[in-house]
Structures are given as structure tokens and as C-alpha cells.
Amino acid sequence: MPAYTPHSEWTADALTVVARAEREAVTRGHRCVRSEHYLYALLEADGPRTVLATLDVPVDRLRHRVGEVLAGELPGTSDVPRVLEAARFEMDLEEIRYLSTEHLLIGVAVEGDGLLDEAGATPDRLREGTYQVFRSAVYGPPPAFGHHAVTVPPALRALDDELGVLARHHEAPDDELLARRRDLVSEWSGWVDTVRVVREAELLRAEVRRLHRLLRTHGVDPGR
């Protein structure tokens, strides 16, 4: 009955989901494994549940709905090969070397019977939810900008404007002016959260790379 060939780049959780899906199909006496079995198994896995919770999708209600579908009559052909092809496409899109439960979840959303879409978990939303979960796991919660926002002090900005005027007139700044700037920068950097600034810069770079990959999949050259 297996409708897939295991690969070394599959995560342990992804393989567990496949085994659960096949077991579910056998238990229910179904002739083949389908995306509904995959989705039912995925909704037991921590990764997909976290992504769906991030999107405010009621996971337990969705799983109950999938169970109702499985209790009825399913088509006699498997759509799993298309699901796995879509999941592998997501893996390639992210330029990583392992296929995860999140990739399988998006694959089901792309090629499945619409149960995820009915719940508001479209492929695009799932991609965004997966990205949010990933970046939170790697970088921690997004920086809380607001009244603590990183802004250049007015005095330092005015001094930089003054230095800019000198540069445009090809005049060299005197030592006193440069010393004042060094003092202001030193004072300012004392309360700037540099870790937060670097983290946000990394997140922005990652987002740019992700958007570039998405553009290329639609035939758009981001460099033009």
C-alpha cells in the first residue's frame, strides 16, 4: 500500500506521519492512502499543529472534520504522489535539504481535497505561518519596537548633516567636530540594543531571500 519511496532527507517526524497515514488507511479498510489520511496524521504532529495555531486555525475541530470525511466514502485512487511532489517543491523552494512535516502540510493544501482551504489554511498562509514559526525558533520573538525604537539622536543627526555639508564643499572637518561625533556615537551606542538590531537585520535579509525565491518561481527576475 505505500504510495511513496522513503528518502534520506525526510525528517523523522515526516516519516512518522507517513507511517501513521498508512496505518490509518489500513485500519479503516481503505484501498489506498490519500491526502485525507496524511492530513489526519499531520494534525497529530507538533510542527503542523504549531503552524496552524499561529494562523488561528482550530486544529482539533479540523481534525474532527477530517475524521468525518475518512468515515465516508473516498475516491479509489491516491493523490499522494501529487502531494509529495508539491511537498518536495516547497523543500526546493526553501533551498534546504530535508523534507519536513510542514512541507507535507503545504503539499496537502496544494493538492488535497480542500479541507485545509475550508479552514482558512491556504498554501500561502501556511507558508507564512511556517516562516513565522521558523524565525521565532531561530531568532526568538520579533523585536518589540515602539517607544524603544532605535532612532538616531537629533544631536547626532544634526552633526552628520553638518559633516555632509563640509563633504559636499570638499572641506575637511576639524578635530573638534570629529571628537564631538565620537562622543555622541559612544553615548548613543551605550543604550542601543545591538543584538536586537542585528537580529532584525538578519530577519529582513532572510525575508528578502525568501521573496526573491518566490519571484523566481513565477518567472520574475528580482534583479531587474
TrEMBL record:
Highest taxon of source: Bacteria
UniProt entry keywords in alphabetical sequence: Repeat
InterPro entries reported in the protein's UniProt record: Clp_N_dom_sf, Clp_R_N
Gene3D superfamilies the UniProt entry points to: Clp, N-terminal domain
Annotated Clp R domain residues: 6-136
Protein known as: Clp R domain-containing protein
Organism listed in the record: Actinoplanes awajinensis subsp. mycoplanecinus
Taxonomy of the source species: Bacteria, Bacillati, Actinomycetota, Actinomycetes, Micromonosporales
